[in-house]
Amino acid sequence: MLTSACPYHSYGYFHTMCPIQGRIWKISPQKENEKNNYIELKKTIQCMDKNNVQVLWRLSKAEYNMSLDENISKEKKKSLISSAHESIIKALSIDSNISEVHKWAAVLIDAYSNINLGVKEQLLKLETVKFHLQKALELNPKDPFLRYMIGYWSYNLADISWFRRKLGSILLGTEIPTSTYEEALEYFREAESIQPKFYCKNLLMLGKTFLKMDNKFSAEYYLKLVTQYPVKTVEDHQVNIKILILI
Predict the structure, then answer these.
(1) What is the rounded CA–CA span in Å between residue 31 and residue 233?
(2) Which keywords label this protein (predicted)?
(3) pLDDT of 29 strictly over 50
């Protein structure tokens, strides 16, 4: 999802897209048979060496994607995310020089903090999430999704107004990390230069970022590209609906 309640929305003063909401980090478009695929994958992986880092990060990915099933209970979702988080932390302890390990560490630290930690602790995890994304990018600079993810992280922090940021710091007793639309734009554009039109949401975020920067000409260009993007998944359809609101 592109919009979600911020973790400190419960205070009543904050209403913005949260940069650490687990669902925004979903990497692959959802397919109708994805649930069964991940269940089979998990069964296969569980029969393999649990101390193999390649097994561990794939297991954490499978469990995380299973947790996105809207039909499962909150308890099951929490159990899957906790198990996935445990697997990826173990993978990090075995080998911290693999890009996919850091990518999924960012995803799972985010998701785990959302369901297990308080608001202040969630905010403190923001920099940890970014660290793992940047480390993943350092290890695999050709992955456009990593640049999209860092760009999204930056966009949502830039989108927090001065008033909400100041009030949040007072209420929570901790500084909220900062970023700019310019920084977000740089990552989105770099992702697009690596693999043009690789992801409809990257095109959408380019359009939205240009709108925030009052560059309506460039914003219109990218938003129109989204409307021309082949609709193959539920996610693609949801993005097209959002475009109708923006254009």
Answers:
(1) 7
(2) Cytoplasm, Cytoskeleton, Repeat, TPR repeat
(3) no
